[in-house]
TrEMBL record:
InterPro entries: Ureohydrolase_dom_sf. This is Arginase.
Length: 227
């Protein structure tokens, strides 16, 4: 199966322009030797609001629908930069999809659907947030599988937020300064989930620029290419 990296530097829904800069930094530091497609900027105006988000969402859908990859690994941008990718995955799975939300940033996909009222892809799809984010692999896997079993869906979309990770490994201001999950712990859980569920797509969002290369982040991106 073919997996395509989609770079969507959308930031307007959060109003934090650093999220745009973070996505562009990932492009410059991590994607030079990886094939990827990019969502064109709807606007570079920092003051733009809902209309720009609508245009950005539609542009992301256009890129996805004109690409024939089996899966997409989306890089944001803000936490809702993967909305179009989730919609496409849900449509392909006929709504039989759980969105595993691994992010301290609250899920706001409903509000972010601005301009996509004609898309019915989220019908039947269930957003799943584990009750906690423990730092050990066994405990994290347990809360993830428990939440997914309750959802009872065949396919899983994995949303990853940089806020979940350790600042000592991910030198981005978005990474948590208080504990956090080690990259190898997260990757162990992700690989196990791949064995247990049919992964329909994944994303990494919330990265803020820091000007440094992180081996841990590079390994997470490499996992995204294996969907």
């Amino acid at each position: 199966m073919e997996t395509e990296i989609l770079l969507n530097p959308q930031w307007q829904h959060s109003a934090d322009y650093r999220l745009y800069q973070g996505a562009r930094e990932i492009e410059l530091i991590y994607l030079q030797n990886r094939p990827f497609c990019v969502v064109p900027e709807a606007s570079a105006n920092r003051a733009d609001g809902p209309e720009t988000i609508q245009a950005q969402n539609r542009a992301a859908l256009d890129v996805l629908e004109n690409d024939h990859a089996d899966h997409f690994f989306t890089i944001g941008g803000e936490s809702t930069a993967d909305l179009a990718s989730i919609l496409l995955a849900s449509e392909r799975c006929h709504g039989d999809l759980a969105i595993l939300w691994l992010d301290h940033t609250p899920c706001d996909l409903v509000a972010a659907r601005a301009g996509l009222a004609n898309k019915q892809g989220l019908q039947g799809t269930q957003i799943v947030t584990p009750r906690s984010f423990p730092a050990t692999a066994d405990a994290l896997l347990a809360v993830c599988t428990d939440a997914l079993q309750q959802a009872g869906k065949t396919y899983v979309y994995v949303h990853l937020g940089v806020t979940l990770l350790q600042a000592k490994e991910i030198p981005s201001p978005a990474a948590t300064l208080h504990g956090g999950i080690a990259a190898e712990t997260l990757l162990s859980v992700l690989h196990e989930l791949q064995q247990q569920y049919r992964i329909a797509g994944a994303s990494l969002t919330g990265y803020l620029p820091c000007g440094k290369w992180s081996p841990a982040l590079d390994r997470i991106l490499a996992w995204g290419e294996t969907l």
